[in-house]
Design brief:
The chain has about 140 residues and is mainly α. Helices cover about 50% and strands about 0% of the residues. The chain has 3 helices and no strands. It has helices at about 20-50, 75-85, 90-120. The longest helix has about 30 residues, at about 20-50. The protein is elongated, with a radius of gyration of 28 Å. It starts with 20 loop residues before the first helix and ends in a 22-residue tail after the last helix.
């Protein structure tokens, strides 16, 4: 048998490509959970902020006024009626967006560290390790 025959080559194990289905489930769960949770937290924060006299813009507080031309759109009148009854809707939505970004960022950092700890190796069986070069300080 020759040196380069198939019997001497060991086949690398097949690489699993894609994200673990459990992590996909976590992502789907959090996509459903984070928006209502952030809106609830924002509602509480706006109420506390109004009581504590936080410097909130006065345009954000109070009721939202929908333009009369939008009321003529068929089927959307009940939605507009619901939105006009909401107190501090603009402030709630602005705070909810900020809270949603903050929660998503923190979760991204957390799951990144978790993946680094328990995830697969960054290098596969056919990868070459990074080059270690010891450089000397240049002196004239």
């Amino acid at each position: 048998m020759g040196k380069y025959s198939k019997t001497f080559h060991k086949e690398p194990p097949p690489r699993v490509k894609g994200v673990n289905p459990i992590m996909k489930g976590f992502g789907c769960f959090f996509m459903i959970l984070i928006p209502p949770l952030s809106y609830a937290i924002a509602t509480l924060l706006v109420q506390i902020g109004a009581q504590q006299r936080w410097p909130l813009p006065p345009e954000w507080l109070g009721y939202v006024k929908i333009h009369p031309l939008l009321w003529q759109l068929e089927g959307l009148a009940p939605i507009f009626a619901f939105l006009e009854r909401q107190v501090n809707l603009t402030a709630n939505l602005v705070f909810a967006f900020g809270i949603m970004v903050a929660i998503s960022g923190l979760m991204s950092i957390f799951f990144g560290y978790l993946n680094k700890l328990v995830g697969p190796s960054a290098y596969g069986p056919t990868d070459v390790p990074p080059i270690r070069i010891k450089t000397k300080r240049y002196k004239r």
